[in-house]
Amino acid sequence: xxxxxxxxxxxTGSAAAGATTGAGSAGAPGAxxxxxxxxxxxxxxxxxxxEPAVSARLTFTDNVGxxxxxxxxxxxxxxxxxxxxxxxxxRFTGDLRAQLRxxxxxxxTDRSTSYLALQGRxxxxxxxxxxxxxxxxxxxxxxxxDLFGRAPGDFLDVGRGNETRLFSIGPRAEFEFAGTGxxxxxxxxxxxxxxxxxxxxxxxxxxxxLSDPAATGxxxxxLDYFRSDTRFNDNADTEVYQQTARATLFATVxxxxxxxxxxxxxxxxxxxxxxxxxxxxxGGFDWNPTERTTISATGEDRVFGRGYNFSFHHRRPLSxxxxxxxxxxxxxxxxxxxxxxxxxxxxxxxxxxPIIPDPFQRERFxxxxxxxxxxxxxEGFVTKAYFLDRRLRAGVSLVGARNVLSLSLLRSDRERLxxxxxxxLGPEDDFAIFxxxxxxxATLALNHRISGLTGLNASFTRSRSKGxxxxxxxxxxxxxxxxxxxxxxxxxxxxxxxxxRHQRADGVTDFIENVxxxxxxxxx
Length: 524
Known about the structure:
Layout: E1 48-61, E2 74-87, E3 92-105, E4 113-127, E5 131-141, E6 163-177, E7 181-194, E8 201-212, E9 219-232, E10 239-254, E11 257-268, E12 276-290, E13 293-302, E14 305-316, E15 319-330, H1 332-335, H2 343-351, H3 359-370, E16 387-399, E17 403-416, E18 436-449, E19 454-468, E20 475-491, E21 494-507, E22 511-523
Antiparallel strand pairs: 1-2, 1-22, 2-3, 3-4, 4-5, 5-6, 6-7, 7-8, 8-9, 9-10, 10-11, 11-12, 12-13, 13-14, 14-15, 15-16, 16-17, 17-18, 18-19, 19-20, 20-21, 21-22
């Protein structure tokens, strides 16, 4: 969630849309599992789950450089030991997935590399039911551009110039007051760093939130203060800030429906280096018409214009439905995160819990179903600048006896704010060329369980990315990606798979590539 987002000031009391207790998968990209292959070992909750593994993948590509004018083929061997840890009880809870990827090219040996990919988050209860320490970490190598190079998330993008690192740590105090009131006071120190011109960024975030939504039964209130101070390790040691203060009045119309009105004050120098401030005015509602349906909406007048935050989640026994839209100031620190932040992923993860109780196997299965094969960050677009983010997500998943069909839609429209000039941004940053980057994508995915041990995954993705700005030519890239994968369980702890992918890009990036992979993963 972006800092100072439109609905950050409320405590709705609603359950999160997706489960967040799953541990990372230790399997190799493309080495999958199927619902029928789930073990019964995790049918009862355990405080600690540990799964070491090793995977291997042999890949042939007919266009190793992803270029239109130099189509050279190559063989690529990857061997990746990994470990997945999940703890759901005790003083420390959280999950970690780490993988040491060792990638060797047969012909273009200068592309060979080894690096650590990881995704983890945790919480330490320092003082029982009062003081907690939150930690988060992620390392990945992924194409940072929506317009240039391979598509975001491509497992062949392992160049050193693509590395992105994210870390955060900070204390959080939780307390109660006046019988029904709850309060939070927290500080979070966050770092975003990487190679290829992504200068180190350190952000300190302070938040104090007091809330009693049912103070008088029908009416309630909340007070929320937030401040973010950002420092960039560039030549000028640039510093920027954002500060918001909100007061919210709640009115409970029924046990399922609640209204809220919002007033506040905001100041920032993201959009104007001399700084600007203004009044926040807005309102919204929370509606839970059934136990399986949650709807929340907020609209506010902000310094950048109108801000929105809307979410809809509906879960049925054999389907999940998600829709969200937001418009807010954001940055790569806010948009980079866990796959569980994606409502489509979390909805499928929840839907498969009765079929695949083991969280490692369930996450691995859903990752493969959606094409999210590697640990690390789940956002391809990475920039040094702050931007105004308009983001629309929609997803539906239909679960049958032997098939799962899912459709996910995404529109991301990012407009650079005036924190930096284009000349101060790195060459891999799309905002170094354009002031605005918009990406529309649609993915249709099908999983068919051939037998209790074998499954077939098929997906098709169509996307269009457009860059525009004052004094710059427009740029556009259209992509089509077709993927097919056959996965089977060779033994209770060994899986193998074959996959084929066809990718075509037209526009400022122009190439055609065919990739064939064979994979094997062993869990210990």
